[in-house]
């Protein structure tokens, strides 16, 4: 049911280069018969049957140029791009550009191309859970009308709220993504377009070395291992398919039970 929805659909996978979750999404939907365009700085390791555009998804002008090439219809958009921000020299602005401001900018460009019945799914993180406690602050950022205003807001908070690039800014970027997905889902559904996100736990990808080992161990409990990129791709491919036609504004936690264990006090 999930698979058959993709046959002949036009799908964009932002962050679908390399070999991580987005690459696994691209492979799944390609296998299901979709026409797939990957937007990323890195080419997919397995590029067969995929259209690829090299795009800096943290740069609004580059996003605009890429969006202009997508034609007049996109049935499903996946936002899988992201950086942890723990590499030396990475700034708060770098993290927020890619993980939130660029996702918002690209999605706003693509949503008008999505017909009723289509959908957007974005990959957030368990690092974004607990966003409700910061809702007032997050709402200030969400109220910024565009990329430039959002970046100005980030820069104004680089010395206080976002003083630490990792994990604080990473976590904030994912909190903003979850909260924005929920808000935007409410208006998008008026046009028949659904919008959801997922929150993965620790996953073995090129990004894994950017997370501290003790944190990875903790987030991998109780299941006792990291997930594979494929185990994260399946849930978002489901969210964007017709099999999820009544799911809107959801944040699907895909963490082997870590958040559940914390919520009920077992971890
Ligand atoms: N790996 C984990 O443990 C984990 C856990 C929770 C959430 N996540 C999130 O999952 C998503 C996928 O990450 P992943 O683990 O597959 O890592 P990954 O590094 O394999 O994938 C991220 C992709 O984003 C692309 N990207 C980064 N900056 C870009 C830019 N400026 N322009 C264009 N493309 C850019 C990379 O080239 C890469 O292909 C990310 O949003 C990440 O934050 C990862």
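^ Assign residues to that structure.
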């Amino acid at each position: 049911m999930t698979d058959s929805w993709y046959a002949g659909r036009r799908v964009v996978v932002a962050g679908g280069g390399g070999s991580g979750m987005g690459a696994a999404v691209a492979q799944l939907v390609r296998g299901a018969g979709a026409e797939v365009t990957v937007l990323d700085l890195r080419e997919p390791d397995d590029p067969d049957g995929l259209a690829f555009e090299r795009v800096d998804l943290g740069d609004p002008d580059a996003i605009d140029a890429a969006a202009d090439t997508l034609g007049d219809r996109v049935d499903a958009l996946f936002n899988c791009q992201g950086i942890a921000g723990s590499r030396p020299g990475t700034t708060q602005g770098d993290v927020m550009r890619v993980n939130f401001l660029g996702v918002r900018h690209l999605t706003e460009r693509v949503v008008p191309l999505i017909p009723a019945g289509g959908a957007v799914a974005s990959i957030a993180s368990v690092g974004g859970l607990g966003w409700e406690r910061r809702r007032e602050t997050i709402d200030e950022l969400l109220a910024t009308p565009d990329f430039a205003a959002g970046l100005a807001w980030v820069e104004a908070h680089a010395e206080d709220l976002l003083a630490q690039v990792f994990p604080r800014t990473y976590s904030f970027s994912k909190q903003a993504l979850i909260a924005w997905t929920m808000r935007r889902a409410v208006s998008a559904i008026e046009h028949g377009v659904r919008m959801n996100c997922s929150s993965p736990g620790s996953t073995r990808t090129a990004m894994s070395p950017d997370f501290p080992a003790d944190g990875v161990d903790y987030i991998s409990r109780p299941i006792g291992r990291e997930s594979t990129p494929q185990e994260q791709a399946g849930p978002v491919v489901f969210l964007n398919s017709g099999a999820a036609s009544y799911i809107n504004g959801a944040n699907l936690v895909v963490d082997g039970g870590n958040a559940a264990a914390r919520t009920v006090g077992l971890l």
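The chain has one domain: 4-263.
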